[in-house]
Design a protein that fits this description.
180 residues, mainly alpha, two-stranded antiparallel ribbon, 2 strands, 52% helix, 2% strand
Length: 180
C-alpha cells in the first residue's frame, strides 16, 4: 500500500508501480530503484525480486565488511559470481525457432509473466487472450506490439475481458455501412 502526498491510497504488489510513485532521495536507494526500473524496462517483470536480491547482496556485504574484508575483494567476488552465473544461464538457454508461431510456448511465456500479478482464473483467461492477440498480429519477420491496444472500460469487470479481432470504436461507427 502506498499513500501519496495528498492522502490518496494506492494498493499494489507491483514493485515497478511502487518505485515510480515513491520519492527516493538516498543515493543507494536511488541506485536500487534504477536497477529495478531497468529490469522492468527490459524484461517487464521481476522488479520486486530484483530489489530483494540487491538488498540481500548489500546485507551480506555489510556482514563481510564488518569482519574486516576489503571492499575490493567483495567487488571481485561479485564479478566472479556474475561470470559464473552467465555461464550457467547460457547452458540453460533453449533456442526456439519461429517462437511467434508456437502457441504453446507463447502461452507458457504469457502465463509465467501474468501469474505473478493476478489470481489463477483471471491469469488463465488473460494468458489465452494475450497469446491470441500476439498471434493475430504476427508476421513472418516480427511481431508489432503497437498493433495491440488495451482499452479500459471502467464499467466492466476484469473477468469480462475479451479479445476483439479488429477495431473497437467506443464512440460509434464512422459510417452507417461499417460492420458492427
Amino acid at each position: 500500500m502506498l499513500v501519496g502526498g495528498a492522502g490518496q491510497v494506492k494498493l499494489t504488489k507491483d514493485g515497478s508501480v511502487l518505485l515510480s510513485e515513491m520519492q527516493i532521495q538516498h543515493p543507494t536507494a536511488t541506485m536500487i530503484a534504477r536497477s529495478a526500473n531497468a529490469q522492468d524496462d527490459i524484461v517487464g517483470d521481476g522488479t520486486t525480486s530484483n530489489i530483494l536480491f540487491i538488498g540481500e547482496l548489500l546485507k551480506q556485504s555489510e556482514r563481510f565488511l564488518q569482519t574486516g574484508i576489503h571492499p575490493r575483494h567483495l567487488v571481485d567476488g561479485f564479478d566472479l559470481a556474475k561470470r559464473e552465473t552467465l555461464l550457467v544461464l547460457n547452458k540453460m538457454v533453449r533456442k526456439v525457432e519461429n517462437i511467434h508461431l508456437d502457441r504453446d510456448l507463447l502461452l507458457k511465456v504469457a502465463r509465467s509473466s501474468i501469474s505473478t500479478k493476478l489470481e489463477r482464473d483471471l491469469c488463465e483467461q488473460l494468458s489465452n487472450i494475450v497469446t491470441d492477440a500476439v498471434l493475430c498480429i504476427r508476421t513472418e519477420q516480427d511481431i508489432d506490439l503497437h498493433m495491440v491496444e488495451i482499452m479500459h472500460m471502467k464499467h466492466k469487470m476484469q473477468a469480462e475481458t475479451i479479445l476483439v479481432r479488429g477495431l473497437v470504436l467506443d464512440h460509434g461507427a464512422r459510417n452507417v455501412n461499417m460492420r458492427k
